[in-house]
Amino acid sequence: MDALFLLLVAALAGLSLLLIAGCGALMGERP
Amino acid sequence: MTTSGVLQLVLYMLVLLAAAWPLGIFMARVYEGKQHFLSWLSGPELGLYRLAGVDPAAEMSWRTYAIAMLAFNILGLLVVYGLQRCQHLLPLNPAAMPAVTPDSSFNTAVSFATNTNWQGYGGEVTMSYLTQMLGLTVQNFVSAAAGMACLVALIRGFTRKQATGIGNFWVDLTRSTLYILLPLSLVLSIVLVSQGVVQTFGPYAKVALVQPTTFDEAVTGDDGKPFLDEKGRPTTKKSPLTEQTLALGPAASQIAIKQLGTNGGGFFNVNSAHPFENPTPLSNFLEVLAILLIPAALCFTFGEMVQDRRQGFALLSTMVVLFVPLLAVCYGAEQAGNPLLAAAGADQTASDSHSGGNMEGKEVRYGIASSALWATATTAASNGSVNSMHDSYTPMGGLVPMWLMQLGEVIFGGVGSGLYGMLAFAIVAVFVAGLMVGRTPEYLGKKIEAYEMKMASLVILIPCAVVLVGTAVAVIAPHGKATIFNPAAHGFSEVLYAFSSAGNNNGSAFAGLGANTLFYNTALGLAMFFARYWLAIPMLAIAGSLASKKLVPPSSGTLPTHTPLFVVLLASVVVIVGALTFLPALALGPIVEQLQLYAQ
């Protein structure tokens, strides 16, 4: 059970990093 | 409403605004690195940077800032999780609390790291002193400081010209904690102790009952299972009850920061309704003042930092304009009482001998006005502490705290997060105004373009989606329905409130709902995580984008953002977005409950 929740935290952190990358990529689109 | 009640509320607003102004100016000096009366603490500050290997002069891009914020919070989350899981092996556990379950540990860790402080557990029967202090209280400080840091980064985005950096997260975090949160908490803790709030490492106390009584004790066999009578019911015997266990602990130090940092997590299960957390009317006034103090003061900080005090005053005015009517609705509904009881002949009129109105779930020490004020303040801010049970409010009285959370907690809001949420609405407001007059929208001399609008939309829409999707799943999924103990509309209200609270990082609860289950611990934990970081990240992206832009001088087409017209526009945007998004869900819960009161 502990491993599952730690995995969930890791997944959430990973998704948040993806959001940072996504927001950065969108910013790059600006002319 | 009674005269004394109205006077209490007026006094509260006056003291709040008077105290917020100097604090706001002080905080601006702290963040700008100017001299202030606590500058003598700069030695420890620099020592901390040396210890951590941080260069305080190094500027961070918005991405680096966001990654630092995220990494720091994830690390804190893991520490709180580990402390709970291992508390039975660690010191400062005089009540021999066992390890907290994994799902509850996850929920609490996310809850405190995200400044939500939703509590699916009862503090005095779950957490060791070490967990409360090293885990929860520390997160109370640093989660609040992280929110303030993100706000300061956004303000720098407005003030800087063609810059790549928005500050240094470690510096902002340290300054928020060292110069603002710690000193204020120290002072408030000592005042609270003077009022009778407990602060001790001693074990729980056993005291003799003033009036000994008896209770029905189950008769059990050697296997611990109860004996059953011929009808299959457990047999009981009358047992004397002569003493009571009083839960104690280092509460005052946690309560001060729980209010100042808009955290809200109580040391004891009934939170600020507990006499050891909130013993007197004075402690009640100071605690509810502390809830909105920093969020209100940050508006003045904003005005100072953007070098136009009128801008901060306009934002604060918007908050007050929205807060006061909602407070009046909540107080009015509670003082009016329950029409069904009135029809049954109950006297709910205020008089010299009793408060009248709806006193169910409220402390007689505080009465209706102070309870309604607390309920409104705690949900306007992302605090979530309670001094009365919101589940027992009239439907209309309960709708106010629920809707305040659903508005995104931008009316004062959490420390830092409230104002950056309001700034997201301000960006939308100037965009709407720009569409009306056909000009490129500007705010504080920065052009608001498609990118800022996309990010602001994320900030506004993510919590709405989290709340509505979470509620929908909970009322459909068997595991969600299994612990809805109240039938029909009120059960729905409880679920909607829970997700509104988690999805806006508030932390208060309607109770009634059995939330300490695998389903709710996980679902609400996810809601809290997304509501915190998935808003902070787009806000930091806006900060980065704005910082890189040139300052545009005001022209005849520029919408002034310090005028009453802008206050009305901004308040309207907040209300319209909140109403359009949540009215259908509210109609299924508190609105239909209110109508039912008059239908029977």
Task: Summarize the model shown.
By secondary structure, chain A is mainly α. Chain A has one helix spanning 2-28.
Question: Could you explain the architecture of this structure?
Answer:
The complex is a heterodimer of chains A (31) and B (600). Chain A has 31 residues and is mainly alpha-helical. In chain A, 87% of the residues lie in helices and 0% in strands. Chain A is rod-shaped, with a radius of gyration of 14 Å. By secondary structure, chain B is mainly alpha-helical. Helix content of chain B is 61%, strand content 5%. Chain B contains 19 helices and four strands. Chain B has helices at residues 3-31, 42-52, 62-86, 102-113, 123-126, 129-159, 169-195, 252-260, 281-305, 309-336, 339-343, 367-380, 395-406, 417-437, 450-476, 478-481, 488-502, 518-547, 564-599, and strands at residues 205-218, 236-246, 442-443, 446-447. A two-stranded antiparallel sheet of chain B has the order 1-2. A two-stranded antiparallel ribbon of chain B has the order 3-4. In chain B, a hairpin with a 2-residue loop joins strand 3 (442-443) and strand 4 (446-447). The model of chain B has no long low-confidence stretch (mean pLDDT 92). Classes of the chains: A mainly alpha (31), B mainly alpha (600). The A-B interface holds A 1-2, 4-6, 8-9, 12-13, 16-17, 19-20, 23-24, 26-27, 29-30 and B 63, 66-67, 70, 74, 77-78, 81, 85, 102-103, 105-106, 449-451, 454-455, 522, 526, 529, 533-534, 537-538, 541, 544-545.
